[in-house]
Design goal:
The chain is α+β, with helices and mostly antiparallel strands and 253 residues long. The chain has two domains: 14-152; 157-237, Nucleic acid-binding proteins (OB fold (Dihydrolipoamide Acetyltransferase, E2P)), CATH 2.40.50.140. It has eight helices and seven strands, in the order H-H-H-H-H-H-H-H-E-E-E-E-E-E-E. The chain has helices at residues 2-15, 22-55, 59-64, 77-98, 108-128, 131-142, 144-150, 152-156, and strands at 158-159, 164-172, 178-183, 188-192, 198-199, 210-218, 227-237. The chain has a five-stranded mixed barrel with strand order 2-3-4-7-6. Helix 6 crosses helix 7 (144-150). Residues 242-246 and 249-253 have low confidence and may be disordered.
């Protein structure tokens, strides 16, 4: 035993081995927890973006269009990307907490449950506080492909042949029975309506208002004209549908 101790001391002296500073372990532990915190925040943001993107779809319209959505549908490509990233960040966070000083003592199921709870609670908080929407717009501004693939609602309401048209009101016509609309493909439309038009609460027939229109495309002999025609049956606010329908206010004035 004495020989082993003696040999060890001689080796330390010969190789000039020095003890690692206590501050090194403190810094390493702090870095691990900081990494864990960053991964949790990234996971929360990813989860909140899933909620935001999926909430943009008008599910009832899908049934009217006869579309059966599944998780491999093109409209879900970006939400699936964020789902994969959420799981990835969760796994990395799990690994980081295992690397902490007492991480090995924690039950794996408990860690997973805690992470899932944190992601869900704060993810919903980010979504309802509209932070996820702000992050989405930042990504959209930085990446054109991301913007194109994540415009789920815009694509859904860019199908005039099926009776679904969305866009921004350019101007109200001199006649109270029509207005001009610019769709999401930068194409101009003349929207006609009559006394039977239904306007959902929250939808305003004012310039620069973003709206959704249910109706029918009017076929013309010359389809190459700058403006297309669309007969509106119902107008909805861009966000939501409105609690109940009512006749168009002020359309007869």
């Amino acid at each position: 035993m004495k020989d082993v101790i003696k040999e060890t001391l001689e080796k330390i002296k010969k190789e000039e081995i020095k003890p690692i500073s206590r501050w090194f372990f403190l810094a390493k532990n702090m870095f691990t927890w900081l990494t864990f915190l960053c991964l949790v925040v990234l996971g929360i943001i990813s989860f909140s973006l899933i909620l935001f993107l999926v909430s943009q779809l008008d599910w009832e319209i899908c049934s009217q269009m006869g579309i059966k959505l599944h998780w491999l549908s093109p409209v879900f490509y970006i939400p699936l990307l964020w789902l994969i990233l959420s799981i990835f960040f969760a796994l990395l966070a799990f690994w980081e907490i295992r690397k902490t000083k007492k991480g090995y003592r924690y039950n794996s199921a408990v860690i997973v449950l805690i992470l899932a709870t944190i992601f869900s609670v704060f993810g919903f908080f980010f979504y309802f506080s509209k932070e996820s929407e702000r992050v989405h717009h930042v990504f959209s501004g930085q990446s054109v492909p991301y913007k194109k693939m994540s415009e789920l609602k815009e694509r859904q309401w860019s199908q005039p042949e099926l009776g679904f048209l969305g866009g921004i009101i350019l101007q109200i016509g001199d006649k109270n029975s029509q207005f001009k609309l610019l769709d999401f493909e930068e194409h101009s439309w003349v929207i006609n309506y009559d006394d039977n038009l239904v306007v959902m609460p929250g939808a305003l027939l004012l310039p620069n208002e973003k709206i959704k229109i249910l109706g029918q495309k009017i076929e013309t002999e010359n389809e190459k004209t700058e403006e297309s025609l669309f007969q509106a049956r119902e107008i909805r606010p861009w966000e939501g549908r409105g609690p109940e329908s009512r006749n168009c206010p002020g359309c007869e004035k």
